[in-house]
Design brief:
The protein is of the alpha/beta class. The chain is 29% helix and 30% strand. The strands form three sheets. A six-stranded mixed beta sheet has the order 5-6-7-3-8-9, with helices on both faces. InterPro entries: AAA+_ATPase (IPR003593), ABC_transporter-like_ATP-bd (IPR003439), ABC_Transporter_VariousFunc (IPR051782), P-loop_NTPase (IPR027417).
Length: 288
Amino acid sequence: MSTVLRAVGLGKTYGRRAALDDCTLDIPAGRVVGLVGPNGAGKSTLLNLAVGMLAPTSGTIEVLGGTPPEHLAKVGYVAQDTPTYAHLTVADHLALGEHLNPAWDADLARRRIERLGLDPRQRARKLSGGQRAQLALTLGIAKRPELLILDEPVASLDPLARREFLQDLMEAVAEQELSVILSSHLVSDLERVCDHLIVLVASRVRLAGDLDDIVSGHVRVSGPRDAGHPGELVTASHTDVQSTYVVRYDGPIADPTWNVGHLSLEDIVLAYMEQRREPAVRELESVR
C-alpha cells in the first residue's frame, strides 16, 4: 500500500464554524509524518476523523484503504495528553490492551515496561507525565499497528522525557516498519524524527511535502520596495525602501536585484502560519 491516509475535500463543521475545510491529502506509507499548525487549526479534528471518532461533514477519508472506523485494529492511536486510566495499574492497562486487540504482542509490551522501569503494580495516577506517555506509547505499539497516530503526545513533557519518548518512537518505527502521523507544536521535535510534513492553518492544508524538499524549495529574498518578487509568494513585509519576501522557488535565484537567504524549517512553518486569511497553497509536486 503506497498511501496510508487519503482525504479528498474533507471537511468537518460545527454549526457555522469549520474545524476542517476542503482538506485534500495523500499521506505516503512507510513514513514518519509531522502535522503542525496553531491551536484551532484542525489537527486533532483530522486525526479524530482518521480513527473514526468523528464523522466528516463533507468529502471523504480513507485509512489503510478503508473508511474509518474500518481497519481500526490496524491503527494505533495516542490521544492528546496521553490519556490513561488513573485507577488502573500498569499491568491492568496491558491486560486491557491484550483483551481488546487481536494482534496484541504481550512479549513486546512486557519488555518495554521492564526496560522503562515501570512497576506493573503502580497505578497510572502515581506515574509521572513521562511515564504515562511511555505507557500510552507501549499500548499503541504493542497493538502491532500498521499506522500509529499520535496527537501531541509530548506537549506536556519536560525536554528529557520528550527526547526519551521520541527515541523510543523511532526505535519502534525501525523495528516494526510503522507508518506514523505525529501532531506537535514543536517544530524542532518534528524535524528530529519526521521525513514528511503537513502544515494546517485556519482549518486548511497550507503545505505538504518531504522535509528536504520543503527546506530546499523556500528562500527569503529582499530587494527594492515594490520590485515584485520571484517565485510563489508565502509572506511579505515592507519598509519605506525595501521589501522582504518568503517565497517558494525551485533552483538558484540569479537576479542580482535580490539578496537571498536560507530558511530553517521553523522559519518556513511560521511563514505559512501567518497566512491565516490567504488561499490554501498547492502541495509540493513531490507528494503527488
